[in-house]
Each structure stands twice: as C-alpha cells, then as structure tokens.
Specification:
Organism: Aquisphaera giovannonii
CATH class: Alpha Beta
Helix content: 10-25%
Strand order of the largest sheet: 2-1-5-3-4
Strand content: over 45%
Structural class: alpha+beta
Number of domains: 1
Protein name: ThiS family protein
CATH architecture: Roll
Distance between the termini: 39 Å
Order of helices and strands: EEHEEE
Length: 75
C-alpha cells in the first residue's frame, strides 16, 4: 500500500492517505489530499527507496510513497 505523508516542521510527519493503484476510490482520496496540501511554499517528492527520490509537481499513483515538505528557506 502506497502512502502520502506530510512533514511537519518540528513535529515529525503525518500520514495523510494510503492507496492501492487498483482501488480508484483510494487513489482519488490521496490525489485530492495531495492537491490540498501541496500549496505555495511546499514541495512534493516521490520516494522510491533509500537515496532514491525526485521532486514531483502532480500526484503520481504509481509512487510507493510521496512526501510533502515545507520549502527550505535561507537567510
């Protein structure tokens, strides 16, 4: 089962949704939550295993895991 997680600054992470590619209802829920939580100032990454991640702009139902993170701010 794939996961959509949100990294919360200073509070760890929160699992927003889990889906299975062959269950369209679970994919639709995860896709809606992705759209809701990928807002300006946040980035999303597809996680394919240790050291294997890439940024994504759209929900990808084939991803084993998606992590949404706050954008890095410098100063």
């Amino acid at each position: 089962m794939a996961k959509l997680r949100l990294l919360k600054t200073g509070h760890g992470d929160l699992t927003l949704a889990e889906w299975e590619k062959n269950r369209p209802d679970s994919v639709a829920v995860a896709e809606a939550l992705f759209a809701e939580h990928v807002t300006p100032g946040r980035l999303a990454f597809r996680l394919d295993g240790p050291g294997q991640s890439r940024p994504i702009q759209r929900f990808d139902a084939t991803a084993p895991e998606i992590l949404i993170v706050p954008a890095i701010q410098g100063g």
